[in-house]
Sequence to fold (210 residues):
Amino acid sequence: MGGMSDCSDCRIDTRALQRRERRVLGTVLTINAATFLMMLAAVYISGSSALLSGALDNLGDALTYAASFAVVGATLRTKAKLALFKGLLIAGAACGVAIQLGWRLLHPAVPVVESMSIAALVNLAANAVCLAILAPYRHGDVNMASVWECSRNDVIEGLAVIAAAFAVWMLGSGWPDIIVALVLLVLFARSASRVLRAASRELRSPVTQA
Fold:
């Protein structure tokens, strides 16, 4: 009788955990979607490559949070497949930044510092809130751990964009914006590689394949 009661408690705890995860993912999804729209408008006004990298990152995060929300409570194999998809999205963001950087190198310009700075500060604040919300799940399953990885990258990206805006203002040059965008490009590529490797290991795991 005690064993059956313990099993029932386990199912209740699992359902409660899944509800919490869905609530958390829904919150960070909303924040990232709103931030993406704000950043997109700021990119149009300022012409900043570093801001574009942040906007694309927020879009990728919003999509991956939505996908993560859908697979809460799913099998390990399904979650590993989703993590693989997240890695590809991060790599796609890196490609988008690379294309825009190539265009900027051919058409140099100084970003509008005011709009760039305001957007960067709002973006950093939003990313910091998301990271704090996701912190308890950073050592969770491959699904939630990869979500936390995305959010941590967002905070680093936010700090880098603020540094770029300050340097553009100090120097009156667009090169700091381009350099920071290049650094973020490397960050995206490394993060994509880590997520893809983790997802591949999970898919090859005997536990996942069972």
User: Anything to note?
Assistant: The two ends are 29 Å apart (CA to CA). The chain has a mean pLDDT of 78.
